Structure formats: C-alpha cells, structure tokens
Amino acid sequence: MAYILADAGYDMWILNNRGSTYSKAHVNLNPERDKTFWDFSFHEQGVYDLPQIIDYVLNLTRQKDLFFIGYSMGATIGHVMCSTRPEYNAKIRHFVNFAPVTDTVHILPPSYNIVFSVFPEFVKSLRAQNITELFPRRALAGNILRSLCQNGSSMQSICVASIFLIVGVDYKQFNPELFPHIFRYFPDGSSLKTAEHFIQIMSTGIFREYDYGTTGNRIMYGSDAPPKYNLSQVTAATSIYYGAGDIISTKADCEYLAKKLPNAMGLFKIPYHHFNHMDFMWATNVRQLLYDPLVNLLNKYK
Question: According to the model, what pLDDT value does residue 161 have?
Fold first, then answer.
C-alpha cells in the first residue's frame, strides 16, 4: 500500500510502534534489562507517541494536517489519541480505519473465549518470570516458522488453519508462498501490557483504559473501573473499512463505531465475502479490492 500511495503522489510516513524492533531506543532505559520500559500499552502510544510523530511530520513538511491510516490496533491508537488529545483532530485531514478495534459488540468465537479464559494465568506466569516483552523478533524463531510453514512442508496446512482460527477463513486470498517473507519481520514484538489491554477490550466489549483492578483503578483513576474512551471527541473526518470474513473487527463492531463518531464520512465493506482481518495486508487481490479505492477516496480530500 505504501508504494501504491507513494506512486499516487503521497508523502508516506510509516510508523514503528513502541517496542518493535526499530523502536526500542530510550534516553535512560535498556529494554533488555529494565522492565519499566515495557510498562505501556496502546494507550501510551495514542496519548504520547502518535501525537509526537504527527507533530514531527507536520513540522518537517510544513503542512497543517495529514491523512492518518490505521489498521487494526493502529486504528485503535488513532482513536485513543483523538479522544484523549482532541486538539489533534484538527491535524488529521482524514482518518482512515482498516478493521478498527474499539468497542466489541459481536459474539466472540468459542476459540477466543477459551484463550481469554486462560490468558490471566498465562500473564501471571510470565510476570513471575519477569517477562514483560511479548513476541520479539528472533532469528531462530523466524527460521523455525519459515521451515514449518514453507511450501512442501507437511505442517503448512496447520500453519494456515492456525492463522485462520484467529483472523477468519479465506483460502482463496492467502498465498502460502508468502510465509517465508512474512516470518522475516512478523511477529515483531510489543509489551505484555499491550496484549493484556487489547484482550481486555475484546473480552469485555468496552473500549476503555487499562484495568488495574479495583484498588489499582482507584489509585490511577479515582474510580473502581477504568474510564471509557470518549469517542464523541473523535471529530476528525473518518472512513471505516471492514471485511465480511473478519472475526476480530466485524461489520457489527464497525457499524457501532460509525454511530459513535460525530464525523463518520463512510462505512465501506470490502467487495469480497470472505475478506478477513489478515487480508488487509496480504490478500492476493488487495490492490483491486482496497488500495485502489483508497487512493480514490484520498484524492477526494486532497
């Protein structure tokens, strides 16, 4: 998508989220030794990181606003920013959402409920071992995944089925030959707290700040429960794209979000019935189904 938009004349800036391979620098904390570095979720990325990035880009390019395209948690981060730092709405000409995750109103698949039920014990075990970084990019892990999932491997069908269990089934649009390329950079790491926060909003259905428990919430927020993100503050012009085969960000979720936003300009279904959460990146026909129509949309707001 970045190359397509660049060819269409757009100046592209691609973000590296905090905690990923290219975003681990800190003025005094070492992410390999200091657990404090990993004390963040997508909340901090929306409140602190994204505003700094936007200001950097606008100052350097001498522009007053920009287009922001957020995919999945990237869209979540955008909504955190616009709701908690509402002055930044004026700096976004158009906020494009690909499969956004905010309030979850759809019924979760049984597989999700099973994972969510055991996740607290999993977190407790990791914290007991002082593990606060999740899924870092490691050459050995990448090599193993490439070996297991490459063409000719008897495990490839299990690799594909495992991914579809999480994102939705779409055999036609996913090319398994991509596996060796995907596992060169994916997964790329984040904090355990980010995963906790993400699962929190999906399992409870409520788009709100990180839940520290009743006692912790009283200390952090002065209330028993964490505050909800106020989506009425997201006043930037917004478009939302969803896939009918997506089981993470569904049509119902996106419709609910569109009704909450004061300036939703469009809710667009990808014109392919099985389009899933992963297809926004890797679908064989993603250019025709999504990227070319996106260019047309952006051109309207130039």
Answer: 94
